[in-house]
């Protein structure tokens, strides 16, 4: 197998991945030391209009995901578990690629994944607001 290069973009993405892990570790540590998660304000769009913004449910999805409720997390906001699973796959494969000095295949981050996240976010937003508008059912 030929060595695959670890490009400049791969290095930046990998470093951002470790930065993300460090920020998350700080949040978890603060939760352990303080005893509660940082309180976030309610969604301004939802408070003003009564309808969901494209990010509504994201915080609940993160909390559900890290409590092991993957399906509930997907229901709250499908991008959250998709992101974390993709993040874990990328970080593990990139780490193995670096440790083997390029002898293993590299999973490259592509902009098409951002487009997929955008489409999933917009479909989620549209469905939740349509159910609220037509059926009067609040899904969050």
How would you characterize this protein structure?
- The protein has helices at residues 8-34, 44-49, 58-66, 70-76, 79-99, 111-135.
- With 140 residues, the chain is mostly helical.
Sum this structure up briefly.
This protein has 140 residues and is an all-alpha fold. The chain contains 6 helices and no strands.
Topology, element by element:
Elements: H1 8-34, H2 44-49, H3 58-66, H4 70-76, H5 79-99, H6 111-135
- Radius of gyration over C-alpha positions, nearest whole angstrom: 18 Å
Provide the succession of SSEs: HHHHHH
Structural class by secondary-structure content: mainly alpha
N-to-C CA distance: 49 Å
Helix content: 55-70%
Query: Beta fraction of the residues?
Result: under 5%
The main β sheet shows up as: none
Given as residue ranges, the uncertain stretches (5+ residues, pLDDT < 50) are none
What is the global morphology? globular
Total strand segments: 0
**Count of discrete alpha- or pi-helical segments spanning 4 or more residues:** 6
Mean pLDDT: 85
Q: Which terms summarize this structure?
A:
about 0% strand, about 140 residues, globular, about 70% helix, mainly alpha
């Amino acid at each position: 197998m030929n060595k695959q290069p670890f490009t400049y973009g791969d290095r930046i993405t990998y470093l951002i991945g470790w930065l993300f892990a460090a920020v998350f570790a700080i949040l978890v540590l603060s939760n352990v030391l303080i005893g509660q998660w940082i309180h976030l304000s309610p969604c301004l769009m939802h408070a003003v209009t009564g309808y969901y913004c494209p990010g509504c449910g994201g915080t609940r999805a993160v909390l559900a995901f890290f409590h092991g409720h993957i399906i509930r997390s997907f229901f709250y906001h499908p991008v959250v578990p998709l992101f974390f699973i993709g993040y874990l796959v990328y970080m593990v494969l990139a780490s193995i690629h670096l440790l083997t000095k390029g002898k293993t295949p590299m999973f490259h981050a592509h902009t098409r994944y951002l487009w997929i996240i955008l489409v999933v976010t917009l479909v989620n937003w549209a469905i939740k607001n349509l159910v609220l508008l037509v059926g009067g059912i609040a899904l969050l």
